[in-house]
Each structure stands twice: as C-alpha cells, then as structure tokens.
Amino acid sequence: MFKRLKDINWENWKPEQRATLLFVIKNGRILLIHKKRGLGAGKINGPGGRLDAGESPRQAAIRETQEELGINPIGVTFSGELSFQFCDGLALHVTVFRASDFTGMPRETEEAKPLWVPLNEIPFDRMWADDYFWFPYLLIQKQFRGRFLFDQDTMIDFELAETRDRDSREAKSNQMLSKPR
C-alpha cells in the first residue's frame, strides 16, 4: 500500500481510467452537481465522467455535461490535469475544463442534481478533499497539474503546480505545493 506520493513510480504510472470534469463559471457563480451515483456519489462536484472509446477529453466533458445536466457548454477551455492513485489500486487521470456559458436549462437527471453556487461560497466540506487545493487555479484561469493519493475518501498526500501551457509536462519542485507532513 502507498503511504506517500514518493512511493509511486510516476514515470511508469498509467491510469486505468480516464475521465473529465467541466465547470461552467458565469456571473460570479459556478454550476456544480450533487452526484447521485458512481465514484463520489453523495459529493458535490462538477459534471463529468469517463471517456468513451475514440473520444477526446474535451468531447467527453461536453457529452457528460449534456447527459448529466441537459445543457450545452459554450466557451470550453482546458484548465488542468489531475492524477489520482487510490490505495485500493484505482489509478485515474482527470482532465479539467471550464466553460464561460451554456445553452439550455440545467435540470436534474438520474446522475446529478444541478447546484448554482456563488464563487465565494463553494461547499468544499461536501467535496473531494483535493478540490480545495486546485479550485483556486480554476477560478483565476491558471492551468494546473496535480497528483493525489487517496485511501478511499481520505486524501493522504498531494503535489500541485501551476503549468504554463497544456504541453508543459514537468512541474519544477519550487513551484509545487505539497500537503504538510
């Protein structure tokens, strides 16, 4: 079992699942969901899910938002990448996007209940623990990359860095935020 990020061989790490998150941020509010099923059921998050075969992360983020909320996001831009290693063996890579607008009316589905929240009232206590650390980058439109180690719902360790662009694959150690030990 992993106890810290340094116990993971990140050079050879391969996610078994690839997924997306997409956050609509408009007029000082963010559109979140109360997740009803799947990984993170019961938590507040953004719409998203696993990539289908042959689908790009951007395509998957848009499709998942359409399926979970019944809206079409507009102005979708890349925000960051998150790598999650769970102690039970699950390895998950998540590509995060933001959108500046949408068409349609957010509606509740079998998967999610929409929740508009003022940007200064994001309910981090009802979200995954990592969100607290990377959301500030999302909100100020800075690209980021993070690595997280979880034991079920408990975050054990993390590293987080701002990246200059999507192709930036290296995080300099002096730019890294780490969980206090």
UniProtKB/TrEMBL annotation:
It catalyses: 2-oxo-dATP + H2O = 2-oxo-dAMP + diphosphate + H(+); 2-oxo-ATP + H2O = 2-oxo-AMP + diphosphate + H(+); N(6)-methyl-ATP + H2O = N(6)-methyl-AMP + diphosphate + H(+); 8-oxo-dATP + H2O = 8-oxo-dAMP + diphosphate + H(+). Its EC number is 3.6.1.56. Keywords: Hydrolase, Magnesium, Metal-binding. It comes from the Bacteria. Signal peptide: none annotated. SUPFAM superfamilies: Nudix. Residues 15-143 form the Nudix hydrolase domain. Its cofactor is Mg(2+). PANTHER family: 7,8-DIHYDRO-8-OXOGUANINE TRIPHOSPHATASE, OXIDIZED PURINE NUCLEOSIDE TRIPHOSPHATE HYDROLASE. Monomer. Oxidized purine nucleoside triphosphate hydrolase which is a prominent sanitizer of the oxidized nucleotide pool. Catalyzes the hydrolysis of 2-oxo-dATP (2-hydroxy-dATP) into 2-oxo-dAMP. Also has a significant hydrolase activity toward 2-oxo-ATP, 8-oxo-dGTP and 8-oxo-dATP. Through the hydrolysis of oxidized purine nucleoside triphosphates, prevents their incorporation into DNA and the subsequent transversions A:T to C:G and G:C to T:A. Also catalyzes the hydrolysis of methylated purine nucleoside triphosphate preventing their integration into DNA. Belongs to the Nudix hydrolase family. This is Oxidized purine nucleoside triphosphate hydrolase. It comes from candidate division CSSED10-310 bacterium.
